[in-house]
Amino acid sequence: MIHFFEILNKKYIVDVNSGIVHEVDDLVYDIIKEDAYKKRENLDIIYDKYDNDLVDECIGELKNLENNNLLYTEDKIITPKIKPTLKSMCLNIAHDCNLLCEYCFASKGDFGGNKELMSFETGKKALDYLVKTSHGRKNLEVDFFGGEPLMNFQVVKDLVEYSRKIEKEHNKNFRFTITTNGMLLDEKNMDYINENFQNVVLSLDGRKEINDKMRIDKAKKGTYDKIVPKFKNLVEKRKDKDYFIRGTFTRENLDFTEDVKNIKNLGFDIISMEPVVTDEKNKFSINKDHVETVKKEYENLCKYYIDKNNKGEGFNFFHFEIDLESGPCIYKKISGCGAGNEYIAVTPSGDIYPCHQFVGDEDFIIGNVQTGITEKEIPNAMYKSNITTKEKCKDCWAKYFCGGGCHANAYNFNNSFMEPYEVGCELEKKRIECAIRIKSEK
Amino acid sequence: MKHTKQLNNKNIMSNIANKGCGECQTSCQSACKTSCTVGNQKCENN
C-alpha cells in the first residue's frame, strides 16, 4: 500500500508497510497519481504530457525503489506481541476544580459526580496495585490529573514520597506528570514539581481573548493574566526538563495557529494544541463541517513551524514531532493507546476506569483499588480493537503513525471500539502529512 | 536518484523479530490526553 500527497508545494509518497517516505518531483507524482507505474496502459497520459526519456527514467527509478523494498512493499500480517501489562496510571487526585472552563470534558472537574479529593490511603492502594501488577515492566508512569490536582497537593506529595520508597523495594522507576491549570502555582510547589516531576502539562489556550472566553474562574473572569506569569516562572526554573503548554481549540478559534504563535511569543517552546473533546451537539464541538477548515489550519501551522525553524527559532509541536528513523517499534505501533490494559484511570473513591475519558460513566467501571481490575470484558475488547483488526484501520495509510486512534472517541461517537472516530482520523492524517513535510525540510 | 529523495532509512518492519519491550511511554500520558498518536513516542532502547 502506498499513500501520495502534496502539501505546501512539495510532493510525497509513503510506502505504508515499510514506513519509508519519498519526496518526489512532479513527474513521478503524476505517474503515481495516474496509477501509470502499476498499470502501464495509463502511461500514455504521462507520455503525452512529459518528455518520454524523462518518463522512462522515472519508471526506472521507481522500479529500483520497488526492487530494493522501498516502495510497494508487501503487507505483513502482524499480531500484537506486547503482553498487555499495566504500567501507566492516571490518578484523578481531585474531582474538583477552581475553574469553570466552558468546554471541560470533566464536567467542570467533578466528572458528573460529587466533588471529591483522593485520600492518601486510596492513592497508596492504587500505586501498590500498579507496582504489584506491572510484571516485567520497570518504568511506571503516573499522571496526577483532575479536576485540578493542585487542590490536593499535599496528597500528591505524600504519594510521590511513598512511590520513591516502594520503587526501590520493587526495582521500579516511577515517572510523574502533573496536569494543571496553574491557578494555585506558587514558588514552593513549582520547586517541588520541577524537582520531582519528569513532565508537567500546563493548560493555556493561546491568545488572551481566546483563553479568557473559555478558561474562566468561579467569578467568571479570564485567567490568562494570572497564569501566564506563573507558567513562565515555572518553565524558567525548570531549565531543560520536559514540559508542555497544552491548549484546546474549539470551533471558536479554528485559526488556532494564532494561538500557537501567541504561546511561542510568550517564550514557550514545547506546545500541544488539541481539538476539543465534547459531544457533537455541543456548541463548541469540532465536527465534520469543520474538518476542511481545521486541515487547512494545520497547514498554516506547519508553515509557521517551518518558518520559525528556518530562522533558528524552532519549537516543538506535539503532533508534528514524528520520528521516522528511531520511533517506536512495530509492536508499539500496533498496540495503540493501551487503555484498559497498560493504562487505567483511578478516581478519588478508588474506582478504576479504562482511561480518564470514561470516568463518570459507571458502565465503564472495571474494578477498584481494593479488588483490582475485576471486569475483564471491556479491557479485552479494547485490546482486541487495534489496527490489525479494525476494518477502517487495516486499509488506512496512516495506521503505523497513528496507532488506531482513541478508544473513548470511537466508543462515544460510534458505540464501538472497532469503529474509529472519523473526524479524529481525518485530522490525525493531516497532522502526519504536516509532520512529514517538516521532516523533509530539516 | 534524480526524481525521488528518500527521507528515511529505517524499515518499520526491521524489528519484527523482536517482541517489543513495552517500556515506552503510554501515548496518552504525554501531552494530549484526548487523541492518540504513537508515531511521536520515543523508543526506550534508542
Detail the topology: elements first, then pairings.
The complex is a heterodimer of chains A (442) and B (46).
Chain A (H helix, E strand, L loop, with lengths): L1 E6 L2 E6 L4 E5 L1 H8 L9 H7 L2 H16 L20 E8 L20 E2 L2 H14 L5 E8 L6 H18 L2 E8 L6 H10 L2 E5 L4 H7 L9 H15 L5 E6 L7 H9 L4 E6 L15 H20 L5 E2 L12 H6 L7 E4 L4 E3 L13 E2 L3 E2 L3 H8 L6 H4 L4 H4 L4 H8 L7 H20 L1
Parallel strand pairs in A: 4-6, 4-12, 6-7, 7-8, 8-9, 9-10, 10-11
Antiparallel strand pairs in A: 1-2, 2-3, 4-5, 12-13, 13-14, 14-15
Helix pairs in contact in A: 4-5, 6-8, 10-16
Chain B lengths: L3 E3 L40
Largest interface: A-B, 92 and 43 residues
- Low-pLDDT windows of residues of chain A: none
The tally of helices of chain A reads 16
Give the assembly state of these chains: heterodimer
What can be said about the biggest beta sheet of chain A? 12 strands, mixed
Number of strands of chain B: 1
The H/E string of chain B reads E
Given the C-alpha coordinates, what overall shape of chain B results? flat
Can you give the helix content of chain A as a percent range?
Answer: 25-40%
Termini of chain A, distance in Å? 26 Å
Class by SSE composition of chain A: alpha/beta
**Gyration radius from CA atoms of chain A, angstroms:** 24 Å
Mean pLDDT of chain B: 84
- CA radius of gyration of chain B is 15 Å
Helix content of chain B: under 10%
Decide which structural class fits the backbone of chain B.
Answer: little secondary structure
Total strands of chain A: 15
Proportion of strand residues of chain B? 5-15%
* Binned strand content of chain A: 15-25%
The parts of chain B where pLDDT drops under 50 for at least 5 residues are: none
Question: What integer is the average pLDDT of chain A?
Answer: 96
